[in-house]
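Notes to self after the Tuesday call (sharing in case useful).
The group wants a holo model before anyone commits to mutagenesis around the pocket. I volunteered. Ligand is uridine-diphosphate-N-acetylglucosamine. Logging inputs and output together so the record is complete.
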Amino acid sequence: MAERRVLVTGGAGFVGSHLVDALVQRGDRVRVFDNLDPQVHGPGATRPSWLSPEAELVIGDMRDPDAVNRALRDVQVVYHLAAAVGVGQSMYRIAEYTATNTLGTAHLLQALVDREMELDRLVVASSMSIYGEGRYRRPDGAEPRISQRTPEQLRAHQWELRDADGAILQPAPTDEDKPLDPTSIYALTKADQEKMCLLVGAAYGIPTVALRFFNIYGPRQALSNPYTGVAAIFSSRLLNGEPPLIFEDGEQRRDFVSVHDVVQALLLAQESPAAVGQAINVGSGESVSVRQVAETLAGVLGVELSPELTARYRVGDIRNCFADISRARTLLGYEPRVTFKQGLEELVAWLAEQERPQDGVASHAAELAARGLTL
Ligand code: UD1
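Result:
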């Protein structure tokens, strides 16, 4: 395959840096555009050691239209992964999240249009968060009428979703046709990013693909970031001899996808003609409960630390969302390769080599509480 010139926004981050490795390995010339956000990279961060030395790093912010414009020079493929990613934080830094994610994407698209660039491909990172709750079925198989839990139900610790007549709803794999229901500013900006790229792509003939990522985990997940995922949080607690803290009853289900499978999907999105113009789920296709995450991790680490069930609700949480990946299989030829156990073994091996992470989670919880954003 001929060398391609590829821009990866957010390419110094968790997912981006793994993508950069794969692109460099197959001989592409890669430019990274990243602001090295201190919340992710630490204060005063310089080029992260994990970023491939083969990649050109341009430090810049999505909110700076000139910097975004310059980063696009001479590229043929754009992966737009840069975003501010704190779900809770997005609820009190509303303008900042909208500027970085929504307006930042607008700057990128504006530059593409102004430069009349004929890209081979634009791939944008979307998120399962845009669905809100996943799909559900009533016991009689009918479509439910209710799509969220009420504050009263949550206060009464009724964790499962119930329909209008009280029937408990069964979670089902979420396909891309599920109506979107973003429930945070972060989720709303992800829906914006996806839709803006797809519609500008269609209008200007830029072949564009949106990938809706489920819960991604793996090495390089930022541990000091309070918005890192549950697998990394539980692992670092267990490594520090502390029990994982489980919200609700631990039976809430997610789809945990290894960063390597995410990279597979990102590469396929660049090749497949059938994927153009589409939004596509990227998950493992398996659902796992939060309790199973804690148990599998304890098994991997060989520790006898039972998780602590807090029976508390984390504000903004959904109960269940896991992916139907049929579309990714059909349109991308995607097939997840990393099992949850293998992926956790890799995560834990990486974490064990890191310096003891600062716990950004506790201070963040206090900040949310101070703003009345907890139940
Ligand atoms: C959210 C975002 C998603 C983002 C991800 C990681 C939504 C709908 N989705 O996913 O876009 O990629 O965060 O930033 O907002 N849990 C515990 N104990 C903990 C931490 C978490 O029990 O210490 C539980 C949560 O209550 C939740 C589950 O684990 O039920 C998963 O949490 P998390 O890893 O933060 O991801 P999501 O909330 O699914």
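Two things stood out.
Residues 136-172 form one domain.
The chain has a mean pLDDT of 94.
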